[in-house]
Structures are given as structure tokens and as C-alpha cells.
Amino acid sequence: IVIVALLAVLAMKIVPTVVEYAAVKKAIVTGRNAGTTVREIQDSFEKQRVTAYIESVSGRDLDITKTAEGFEVSVAYQKKIELVGPASLVLDYEATTGNGRAQKSVQ
Predict the structure, then answer these.
(1) How far is residue 47 CA from its own chain's centroid?
(2) What are the Cα distances from residue 62, in Å, to 2, 17, 95?
(3) pLDDT (tens digit, 9 = 90+) per residue, 24-40?
(4) Are 74 and 98 spatial neighbours (Cβ–Cβ below 8 Å)?
């Protein structure tokens, strides 16, 4: 029962970061589709950021690159979850609109 309880507590700390990552991914895709300039993409992301409760990333954190097809938007960030004492869990998130690539890793 103790192990199940510990796993449940860990899941309750991780799930909100995964939900936020999904919102970030959706917001960068929406921003790329809505904007024709870097500033418009950032502004669109900021609007999505407010409504989706994204706290880890802002429009200034986006890496926006002009390509032949338009723009590619990507972002990478870390979330640190304090566990017990000096122990913590660091989640590295990376999302991009190019090549359909989106990934996350756990350290």
C-alpha cells in the first residue's frame, strides 16, 4: 500500500507538468498557424498562454525560424519537482512544430 501511495503522489506531481506540456505544444502550433511574423506568433502564443494557464514558457522563450514553408516554432524548458529532502525530479520538455517532432525526457 505504501508503494502505491508513493506512486500516486509522484503521479499527482508529474501529471500537471504533462498537461502543461500538451498546452504548450498546442499553443505553438496555434501561434505558428495564426502568425505571419515572429511578433504575431509570439503574441498569439501569449494569448494561448493566458487562457491555457501556461507558466513555464513565455512568447520570448520561443525559438522561431523562417523556413521555405513558413515558420518553425520550437521551445525547450525544464520542470523541477521537489520530492523529499535534497531529492528532486527534473523533467526536460521539448516541443516543435517542425517534422512532427515532440519529445520529453526524464532525468
Answers:
(1) 15
(2) 41, 18, 10
(3) 999 999 999 988 899 99
(4) yes
